[in-house]
From TrEMBL:
InterPro entries: CysI, Flavdoxin-like, Flavodoxin/NO_synth, Flavoprotein-like_sf, NiRdtase/SiRdtase_haem-b_fer, Nit/Sulf_reduc_fer-like_dom_sf, NO2/SO3_Rdtase_4Fe4S_dom, NO2/SO3_Rdtase_4Fe4S_prot. Residues 106-131 are annotated as: Disordered. Pfam families: Flavodoxin_1, NIR_SIR, NIR_SIR_ferr, POR_N. It comes from the Eukaryota. Its cofactor is siroheme; [4Fe-4S] cluster. Residues 112-129 have a biased composition (Polar residues). Gene3D superfamilies: 3.40.50.360, 3.40.50.920, 3.40.50.970, Sulfite Reductase Hemoprotein, domain 1. Belongs to the nitrite and sulfite reductase 4Fe-4S domain family. One of its GO terms (biological process) is cysteine biosynthetic process. It catalyses: hydrogen sulfide + 3 NADP(+) + 3 H2O = sulfite + 3 NADPH + 4 H(+). PROSITE patterns: FLAVODOXIN_LIKE, NIR_SIR. This is assimilatory sulfite reductase (NADPH). It comes from Linnemannia hyalina.
Length: 1488
């Protein structure tokens, strides 16, 4: 049999001294050599033939052999071995070896997505592969920058001829060649091929050529910057000037041309390096590599297009712009670059870039094109195995007006170069570029602008462009350094000693940006002084003084680079060893990730790491700003190439919201799809760990993994599959753990079953909150009481087939979203609803549903009421299961909510199971479960300490512990953005903790601020939340960091005791910057009261601070105020200073309103009681309430009054029903008069009549104010209290810088903003400059924005039904245009939003409030009092964003037109009848 390699083997044999054939399972070029009958060779001896295996890194051996033996070497290989060969090809080129690689382009089947190995690292081939058997030239393109010259041919004869030319050119220019042929063209079966090598070879290569080559090669030491053809124009130094000059692009081009002439003379067969065929006046010219041109050539001929020509490129590298342009007829108006490239993700293919750049790059030839540069289109042939057809050509020719990216027909994708800017409009780069600018400022040099309006944007964006010019800059500075070095050593030159010293210092430190600047400045100053007497090299140095500063060089690569190791500029940067930084952006969203991604994004990182001398980082700005910052700084400092892989998902939506980008990033980082890490080889040299994993959550898993496997770089070398297994191993570990847990659960269950009799029950629940789950648990208890064995689980934790094995299955399922199944029941329902048959005829079942008949109040939405339970019930009946009872329907609207229907359904269930009514057993013990839990906890200990030690799970051990930790200021949460994905992956929820720091009065010192700032980085998610109650909050703390977090907080002299829980919480106080003395008195009072009401248990210090009681010293804890059951519910106190009601005194259980004496000193306080915000949607028994004013007490009496108010609530509050346990209900149930009497009876003094006061509003005052004592205070606007860094607004860094120099205080405001308080006049300017620098001085928001406030909600708050903090700013922005239009820009309207009706941002006293109802749907409330004195009322339910905007915009217009003088929005909507005023909490729900 004859193989396609036979002709090539013949040419190779005739003209080389050594032949290597690379065999793979699918290709055996060695057999072609064995088959040769004609053993002619130009030298006297036959070449040595070596067979290598494709999977054994063959090119390394070839490179070594060529370097040492200096023989004219031929290689026979298929193109799929090229990618792995890249590093060796670079080296081969730099050694100027005369190696010719004859490659047959290999077809790739994209579906098989094979993986091969680069240097031991898994490398993707999918993106470079062909499409269903179409030969793709991507492999060829991938090696185009290695310094190899590239020849291509389109038929078998040309393949043979060019093989001989390649051998000759290689030896005569000492340049390696690649001779690429496609399999059809290389075929030997074509009888017409003339194999006249015996005549041609000696004419092309002489003995002298070989000798001269060997001499040249011997002179070569390694060329450090090895890429020869990156920027092939004349005058551009292609490599380090110290290295012996390699053949220039022009020399190689000319040599090939000359050899082709020789060939023509010998054979009559004519080829040009760049060949034009077609009419001299063609208007349209196709450009194609010769190798892919034959079917296009046929199709063009068939099309008979008169003014169409074709440029066939035989010599692709070096690319000669000049010759390319010369080949084109100047009549051309349109150039269509034709490429066989199925992968559409690469915006501009290499050939397209070469062609585009040619028109402008060459100054001499530009003239011919001036003013009429043709339009350049890219046509990509991506048919499956088909030939280019006449129709394709027609379509390509008529594509003139087509859109930037379009499919001409199934075979073509075309793209116009003028689309460059439009395609780049996505601002993917913005945050990272902003950060680069911030960090490196003047030193920043981004070589390839991503954004450009010029049509040449495409070329400037290409790695080649940037890299080439960077190399030039780097060498220029190196030459400058050389000049400096020679100058200081030149003893003949008279240089003043200080200047010589400064120059020497600069030379020594030129790689260190800071020192280079310092010494450079010194030199410049000295040169300046001596400027008139400078001569020789000193004058030269002076003229180039811009070279002193060390630039931070960056190349920015977009998606195509991230996808494609081969086609990106990564190799060049890495192998150059130059001090160049590469930032590669990846915008593929996690949820849209390719089905079988083979971890290829990470492969780039691993690939780069494998070089050992490259800094590599993987970052995501939406996940960790500070990690990006560190990575950029380290990359810059690293003296060598750096690759920073940067994630910024761009979901394919029209209006991408930041929330979506954030969520995509989180998913990617959390699942390990995009791990955050840094690899800094410089650290290794210092004996430190080079690899740092910055992804907090996967850290532990990976650390264990790495420990086991030793060291990352080691494993990569030893185990090439690590790239793929990296995440898989994490996942499988987690899964294995999960399986183990499940098995344990099964075993436990089996034991349980053994111990119990009666029919076993399977109780399945679907629940988003906890209602349905709670009922399921109750059923389990009920079953046990009846001696039935029962187990329960979420519906999704069983498969529908399990039903066939069960005798009795009980479902409790609530309704989520709009008539949807809860998240933990969706998979189950999906399977069940699709089932047509299921063997459940023996299965008996019953369903209890939970819903709210008024959740979606419109009549047509009645179908959503309890829909899941109804559907489930019907489906089970349809499948033949037997109902035990009728469907039970719990309704939030019933008197006792779902309990009403439960009370009917549950007894029916037990009866249907044959259970008699229980005798003498109290089924649900009528004692408060929470109180029992508190008593059992031993003063808030529970099993918290034990739970912290369990590292097999991210959560606490027991449900009770999650309640108890609240008393310690800690909430266990899980990231709801990640819930579904983690569930899919079989992982436990992404648990983390929120920690709230008690800051009485909201006053912290700069040292405390710095501590909070650093704690957030070290133990939490890097941001700080200033809460609506003047506390600091840390989010995203993993269990293993929790103790450390609390300890660090305590070290800063703050704590978290009683920041949450059923106790008195943080006491708020007006931050009052105006009256300094008064603030001090009021704040001291708040601090004292806070200390007075603190729980006294030692559990906190014991658990968190390891302050164990001395052994044997059995101290029994004691709570003098609270007792062992603490309060029925949380208790909140505030202190207001009129005229500001910023603390919202009416929204709290207990309020103090400061009353001053005539001299302005504090006289005492008016006292308010019974305010509170929380309620439950649809439950009219719950409502917000504004507090009652009950009288005045003096300053001395105030603490005792507070204590006694709290004790009345302790003794009379409802301990049975937590939804009815706040003091507002105690007061409403018994009457305010009863409350006053009860309170008075506990006080040794008489409460006096309330004194007059006046509130104006409940907002903050922004900007600078001066206090009575002449100190200055600046109130910054912190959007929703979230202190974080963004590239545009690095607030967190700014506040840190301020804290470092500030001598006053930081005061947290009740509206989540921040006052930099007590600034001396002399320090004001400095603070102001920092405020400006870090964009903290921005106050030009509308009054509405400044007066808006939102709670945290998603992703951490488990109660959230809708977004809040992440969403409110964008909603307010939508209203702002109208607000500004009607002239209300500076009018304050209080707007508040919460993600659920709990009311953390005090929505019910706002003029406009949005309270989350479901994802994307809000209840809108109107008419709250402007200074928080009146509740608002429900205006409309469940409005979506467009509905909200449509409702509110006309209302705002009307307010502007019709308001009375000084009338506030909340009053206006009531006066004109839009809403009824709410006069008491009890009437909050009355709508008419
Ligand atoms: C976001 C959200 C959406 C809801 N949608 C519906 C609905 O469409 N139909 C309905 O009958 N009840 C609806 N409800 C009411 C709940 O089903 C009901 O409050 C139930 O008791 C919640 O139980 P769970 O805590 O077990 O999830 C919804 C509740 C919430 C919080
Ligand atoms: S109001 Fe609701 S959603 Fe918002 S933080 Fe409070 S509990 Fe969570």
């Amino acid at each position: 049999m004859v193989s396609s390699f036979d002709n090539l083997a013949q040419a190779a044999f005739a003209s080389s001294e050594a032949i290597f054939s690379i065999n793979s399972p699918s290709s055996h070029p060695s057999r072609a050599i064995d088959r040769l009958s004609d053993k002619y060779t130009i030298s006297n001896t036959s070449p040595a033939v070596t067979t290598l295996q494709a999977n054994a890194d063959p090119f390394q051996k070839i490179q070594e052999s060529a370097a040492t033996k200096k023989e004219l070497t031929s290689v026979l290989a298929t193109s799929d071995s090229l990618l792995a060969a890249i590093p060796h090809l670079f080296k081969t080129a730099s050694q100027r070896s005369a190696v010719v690689v004859h490659v047959e382009t290999k077809e790739r089947d994209s579906d098989s997505s094979t993986t091969q190995h680069i240097n031991g690292t898994a490398a993707p081939t999918k993106s470079t592969g062909g499409h269903n058997g179409v030969p793709s030239y991507a492999d060829l393109m991938a090696v185009r920058q290695t310094g190899f010259a590239v020849l291509t041919s389109d038929n078998a004869q040309a393949a043979f001829d060019l093989a001989l030319v390649a051998q000759a050119a290689a030896v005569q220019t000492s340049t390696p060649f690649l001779n690429a042929v496609n399999s059809a063209a290389a075929g030997a079966s074509d009888k017409k091929i003339v194999l006249d090598h015996q005549r041609v070879a000696p004419a092309l290569i002489s003995e002298q050529d070989l000798i001269a080559h060997r001499e040249r090669q011997s002179a070569v030491s390694e060329i450090s910057l090895s890429s020869l053809y990156l920027k092939p124009q004349e005058g551009q130094p292609a490599a380090d000037s110290a290295a012996p000059a390699a053949a220039s692009a022009e020399e190689v081009y000319n040599k090939v041309e000359e050899l082709l002439d020789v060939l023509q003379k010998q054979t009559g067969r004519s080829y040009r390096p760049i060949e034009y065929q077609g009419p001299a006046n063609a208007k349209t010219v196709f450009v194609s590599l010769a190798i892919g041109s034959s079917s296009l050539d046929h199709a063009l001929k068939a099309h008979h297009a008169k003014d169409v020509g074709l440029v066939k490129i035989h010599l692709y590298r070096p690319w000669s712009e000049r010759h390319f342009l010369q080949a084109l007829p100047t009549s051309v108006e349109r150039v269509i670059v034709f490429e066989q490239s199925p992968a559409a993700h690469t915006a501009w293919t290499p050939l397209f870039l070469d062609v585009s750049a040619s028109f402008h790059a060459s100054a001499d030839d530009k003239a011919a094109w001036a003013g009429k540069v043709p339009k350049i289109l890219s046509a990509r042939f991506r048919g499956s195995g088909a030939e280019v057809t006449d129709a394709d050509v027609k379509a390509a020719l008529t594509s003139e007006h087509a859109k930037p990216t379009f499919v001409i027909n199934p075979h073509f994708v075309a793209q116009s170069v003028s689309s460059a800017s439009s395609l780049q409009e996505s601002d993917v780069d913005t945050p990272y570029i902003q950060m680069l600018n911030q960090v490196f400022q003047d030193r920043l040099n981004i070589e390839n602008g991503l954004k450009t309006d010029s049509v040449w944007g495409s070329a400037q964006q290409s790695p080649e462009f940037g890299y080439g010019s960077l190399v030039t800059k780097v060498s220029a500075r190196a030459r400058f350094a050389e000049l400096v070095s020679k100058t200081v050593q030149d003893s003949n030159l008279k240089i003043a000693e200080p200047l010589r010293k400064a120059l020497t210092q600069w030379h020594l430190n030129r790689s260190d940006s800071k020192l280079a600047k310092r010494h450079g400045d010194e030199v410049i100053a000295l040169l300046q002084e001596a400027k008139d007497s400078l001569v020789g090299s000193l004058a030269e140095i002076s003229a180039q003084s811009s070279q002193f500063a060390k630039p931070s060089h960056w190349l920015i690569g977009a998606d195509a680079w991230a996808f494609d190791i081969a086609n990106s500029g990564v190799h060049h940067v890495i192998s150059s060893n130059a001090d160049i930084n590469l930032l590669i952006l990846d915008t593929e969203p996690y949820t849209a990730r390719t089905q079988n991604p083979e971890n290829r994004k990470k492969d780039i990182g691993l690939y780069a790491m494998n070089y050992g001398s490259v800094f590599v980082a993987s970052v995501a700005v939406y996940s960790s700003y500070s990690q990006v910052l560190h990575a950029l700084i380290e990359a810059d400092q690293y003296q060598g190439p750096s690759v920073v892989l940067a994630y910024l998902p761009r979901p394919d939506e029209e209006n991408v919201s930041p929330i979506t980008v954030l969520k995509e990033t989180k998913l990617a980082v959390d699942t390990g799809y995009w791990p955050l890490y840094r690899w800094n080889p410089a650290l290794e040299e210092k004996g430190e760990e080079a690899f740092r994993l910055d992804s907090e959550r996967i850290k532990l898993d990976l650390q264990q993994f790495l420990e086991r496997e030793n060291h990352l770089s080691l494993i990569i070398q030893q185990n090439p599959d690590v790239a793929r297994t990296l995440t898989h191993s994490i996942e499988s570990e987690a899964k294995a753990r999960d399986v183990a847990l499940k098995k344990k659960a099964k075993d436990d269950f089996a034991k349980l079953m053994g111990g119990l009799g009666g029919p076993p029950l399977l109780i399945l629940f679907g629940s988003d909150g906890s209602n349905a789950e709670g009922l399921a648990k109750r059923l389990v208890k009920g079953a046990k009481l009846r001696n039935l064995s029962a187990r329960y689980s979420a519906m999704d934790d069983v498969s529908i087939e399990d039903l066939t094995l069960e005798k009795h299955v009980i479902f409790v399922v609530s309704t989520a979203g709009q008539g949807e199944f809860p998240v933990n029941a969706r998979e189950f329902w999906k399977a069940l609803s699709a089932a047509t048959e299921l063997g459940v005829s023996e299965t008996k079942f019953s369903v209890f549903g939970l819903g709210d008949s008024h959740y979606w109040p419109r009549e047509e939405d009645a179908i959503f009421y309890n829909r899941p339970s109804k559907e489930l019930n019907a489906k089970l009946i349809e499948l033949g299961a037997q109902p035990l009872t009728d469907l039970g329907l719990g309704n939030d609207q019933d008197a006792d909510a779902f309990e009403t229907a439960w009370a009917v359904w549950e007894p029916l269930l037990w009866t249907s199971l044959g259970c008699k009514p229980l005798e003498g057993v109290v089924e649900e013990p009528k004692k408060s479960a929470d109180d029992a839990m508190k008593i059992d906890s031993n003063y808030l200990r529970g099993t918290i300490a034990e739970g912290l030690l369990d590292d097999t799970t991210g959560q606490l051990r027991a449900e009770a512990d999650t309640k108890l930790t609240k008393f310690h200021g800690i909430y266990q949460q899980d990231d709801r953005d990640l819930r579904e994905e983690r569930k899919k992956q079989g992982l436990e929820k992404a648990f983390s903790f929120m920690v709230r720091v008690r800051v009485p009065g909201g006053v912290a010192t700069p040292a405390q601020w710095l501590a909070m700032d650093s704690i957030s980085d070290v133990t939490a998610n890097g941001t700080l939340k200033l809460t609506t109650r003047q506390a600091f909050q840390f989010h995203g703390i993993l269990k293993r960091n929790l103790k450390k977090n609390i300890q660090l907080i305590n070290k800063s002299l703050l704590d978290t005791i009683a920041a949450c829980g059923d106790v008195n919480r943080n006491i708020m106080c007006n931050p009052n910057p105006h009256q300094s003395d008064l603030h001090k008195q009021v704040n001291d009072f708040a601090t004292d009261l806070s200390a007075h009401l603190l729980p006294k248990t030692s559990a906190y210090r014991e658990i968190w601070l390891d302050q164990k009681l001395v052994k044997g010293e059995a101290v029994v804890d004691h709570e003098p105020l609270y007792g062992p059951t603490y309060l029925p519910r949380k208790f909140k106190i505030v202190v207001a200073v009129p005229p500001s009601n910023d603390v919202d005194v009416y929204a709290h259980d207990l309020g103090y309103i400061a009353i001053t004496n005539k001299d302005g000193s504090l006289a005492g306080f008016n006292v308010t009681v019974g305010g509170g915000m929380g309620m439950t949607h649809g439950n009219k028994k719950t409502y917000p309430r504004v507090a009652d004013l009950i009288g005045f007490v003096t300053t001395e009496q105030a603490i005792e009054t507070g204590e006694k108010v709290m004790l009345v609530q302790r003794d009379f509050g409802d301990r049975m029903n937590r939804k009815h346990a706040r003091m507002k209900y105690t007061i409403d149930d018994r009457g305010i008069e009863w409350f006053k009497t009860e309170l008075q009876s506990r006080l040794p003094f008489q409460i006096q009549e309330a004194r007059p006061f006046k509130f104006l509003d409940n907002a903050d005052r922004y900007g600078w104010t001066q206090g009575q004592d002449k100190m200055w205070h600046y109130c910054c606007y912190i959007e929703n209290g979230r202190v974080k860094d963004t590239p545009a607004e690095p607030h967190k860094t700014g506040l840190r810088e301020i804290a470092k120099i500030h001598n006053g205080e930081f005061r947290l405001t009740p509206n989540q903003h921040l006052i930099i308080a007590n600034v001396k006049a002399s320090e004001k300017a400095h603070i102001q400059s920092l405020l400006e620098q870090y964009k903290l001085d921005k106050l030009n928001y509308t009054g509405a924005m400044l007066n808006s406030m939102a709670c945290v909600a998603f992703p951490t708050c488990s109660l959230a039904m809708a977004e809040s903090e992440r969403y409110l700013p964008s909603l307010v922005q939508l209203l702002e245009s109208t607000i500004e239009e009607v002239g209300l820009r500076d009018d304050a309207i209080t707007i508040r939003m919460t993600g659920c009706p709990n009311g953390c941002a005090r929505p019910y006293v706002a003029e406009i409030a949005f309270v989350g109802k479901a994802f994307g749907a809000y209840n809108v409330y109107l008419g709250g009092g402007h200074h928080g004195q009146r509740l608002n009322k429900l205006y409309k339910e469940s409005l979506t964003e467009p509905e909200i905007v449509a409702e509110l915009k006309p209302m705002i217009r009307r307010y502007a037109a019709e308001r009375l003088d000084g009338e506030h929005f909340g009053d206006f909507v009531i006066r004109v009848g839009i809403i009824k005023a709410t006069l008491s909490g009890k009437t909050f729900h009355d709508l008419s």
